[in-house]
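> Could you send the Putative HAD hydrolase, TIGR01457 family prediction when you get a chance?

Sure thing. Input:
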Amino acid sequence: MDTSTAPLTELPPVGAWLSDMDGVLVREHRALPGAQEFLDALKERDLPFLVLTNNSIFTNRDLSARLERSGLEIPEDRIWTSANATAAFLSQQSPRSSAFVIGEAGLTTALHNAGYIMTDQDPEYVVLGETRNYSFNALTHAIRLIEKGAKFIATNPDVTGPSDEGTLPATGSVAAMIKAATGRSPYFVGKPNPVMIRAGLNAIGAHSTTAAMVGDRMDTDVRAGVEAGLRTYLVLSGSTSREQVSLFPFRPFAIHDGIGDLIAHIEAGD
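Output:
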């Protein structure tokens, strides 16, 4: 079902598509109905697209392989993580600088590819990402480096993450602890920061005026798309319900039951 929440105006055709991953294309390691068909429709029309995730643990290659096991064929160059966005942001702010990094291969690989030196001695930045093994010693060292003047960057503000056993503390929770210890707030690069969206558009040579964002969360996906100037579509296959939409002071362009409903927009060239 297509429920438009925006006035009908003359808009240019969508020339590039950005889609959130969890809750839009996959859920619990399984492809959602219509997900591969949506991707096939984009490929058939040679439309640039990116699959976005705030997860900074995995490299693009790892995520591509995991998605393939879920039933989706997504090349690694069509994946954009908060680690990719963080590396792109830091490259723009201070090219080929240095950072003390707390995170997994997805983050360290992205920063290495951006020409960054990872060091625990007088880095320009402390960069905090997702990991399943936060080290007390590493966190203590990060706090002391920030106290000495290192700039504090975090890949994303998510405070919790899912697991088979239940809720896990995520980057936002650990960042809050470091903030409490240092009095220094981090700069979060991932959604809902529109910086992640704009950096992704730059990576595929697209522009916000002719791009669309598909997401399942009003507070991250839709907000980031709205603030970046994209046409936004909310799908109800993930976190946000239809009843919750009215709680937010902004609106998506339209609401759909699932990603498969967007295929008609692609085929019509909307």
